[in-house]
């Protein structure tokens, strides 16, 4: 457990200090955010704010993970390294997207096909590797079984598992990306979700079949290491939020939003809680669904809209809500959703036990 404290503390310090350094460097280089003309007009004052701050979050999470293992003198796990790979791989796709926006001075970076292609390559590599590296009990970082609280009886062929993994990873990373539209919104929501995964990992470790065999023990590889990754992620986001809260001194950019989404998806798959992610990341689901409904209804109805603007946070902006009000209220939704997910997770163990 000392490793969790070392990892979280290191990630927080690297993020809060590193973000301040990054702001100075990015401002000096003129790497500022470009604002879409079709968005809320209030956002135009944010033009030029440094972006690509997600790079600091990734560095902080990795630093926290490494520091924790150095402090405990234990080797890293296959599960932990794979989740970090997924986070940094998607983060690099986002970095390329952000760099194109800045260098080409346009609000759109990678073409949608190229962006999805990059996400797909990283996701497929992760999915294939996650079925390798069995431990002494034969457990691999992920399984081909669809999971909710734990693996269910639904087992997919490897090909379908790869498609399933791609859906989870692409859906989660794009969900966080859509949420990242207001100062601190995606960062705060990620803290709630990552915090929930920290508790889940610790609980699974304490009730692991390897050390505490029973009818409701958890067959999860490296649960404590997953808690370490989640704790480092939450702490890094807290450090970054110091500078990202309204009025933001820096944006995470697609570098950060895709990386955070990748980390969350990886944690869901390695902790065997894939479908529970609907609750744990409820705000991301709601915001993603608002965009899907808006686009679908627009095409079906011949140009009519459900919301004034999608994603959902911009609908409330156009209704006159202050940005800080939207962010705080959406944080509350994210926190309640994560708490609901934890409640469902614990209730299953209590009822069956």
Helix and strand content put the structural class at mainly alpha
Question: Total domains, how many?
Answer: 1
Order of helices and strands: HHHHEEHHHHHHHH
Largest sheet: 2 strands, antiparallel
Quaternary state of this entry equals single chain
Distance between the termini: 25 Å
What number is the mean pLDDT?
A: 90
Number of strands: 2
Radius of gyration: 20 Å
* Number of distinct helices: 12
Uncertain regions spanning at least 5 consecutive residues: none
Give the % helix: 55-70%
Shape from CA axes? Answer: globular
Give the neighbour order of strands across the main sheet.
1-2
Percent of residues in β-strands: under 5%
Question: What does this 3D model show about the protein?
Answer:
With 353 residues, this protein is mainly α. The chain has one domain. Helix content is 67%, strand content 2%. Helix 3 packs parallel to helix 7 and helix 4 packs across helix 5.
């Amino acid at each position: 457990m000392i490793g969790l404290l070392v990892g979280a503390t290191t990630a927080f310090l690297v993020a809060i200090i590193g973000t301040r350094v990054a702001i100075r460097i990015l401002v000096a280089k003129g790497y500022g955010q470009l604002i879409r003309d079709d968005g809320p007009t209030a956002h135009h004052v944010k033009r030029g704010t440094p972006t690509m701050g997600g790079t600091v979050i990734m560095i902080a999470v990795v630093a926290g993970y490494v520091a924790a293992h150095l402090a405990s003198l234990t080797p890293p796990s296959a599960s932990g390294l794979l989740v970090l790979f997924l986070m940094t791989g998607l983060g690099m796709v986002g970095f390329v997207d952000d760099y194109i926006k800045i260098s080409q001075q346009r609000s759109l970076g990678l073409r949608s096909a190229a962006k999805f292609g990059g996400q797909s390559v990283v996701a497929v590599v992760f999915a294939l590797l996650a079925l390798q590296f069995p431990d002494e009990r034969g457990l691999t970082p992920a399984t081909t079984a669809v999971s909710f609280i734990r693996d269910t009886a639904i087992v997919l062929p490897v090909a379908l598992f790869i498609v399933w993994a791609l859906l989870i990873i692409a859906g989660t990373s794009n969900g966080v990306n859509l949420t990242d539209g207001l100062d601190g919104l995606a960062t705060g929501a990620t803290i709630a979700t990552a915090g929930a995964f920290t508790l889940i990992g610790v609980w699974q470790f304490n009730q692991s079949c390897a050390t505490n065999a029973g009818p409701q023990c958890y067959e999860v590889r490296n649960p404590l290491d997953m808690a370490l990754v989640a704790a480092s992620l939450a702490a890094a986001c807290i450090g970054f939020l110091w500078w990202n809260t309204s009025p933001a001194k820096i944006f995470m950019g697609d570098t950060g939003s895709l990386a955070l989404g990748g980390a969350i998806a990886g944690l869901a798959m390695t902790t065997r809680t894939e479908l529970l992610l609907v609750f744990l990341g409820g705000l991301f689901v709601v915001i993603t669904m608002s965009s899907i409904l808006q686009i679908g209804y627009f095409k079906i109805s011949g140009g009519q809209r459900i919301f004034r603007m999608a994603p959902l946070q911009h609908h409330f902006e156009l209704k006159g809500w202050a940005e800080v009000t939207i962010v705080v209220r959406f944080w509350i939704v994210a926190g309640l959703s994560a708490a609901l997910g934890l409640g469902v997770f614990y209730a299953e163990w209590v009822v069956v036990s």
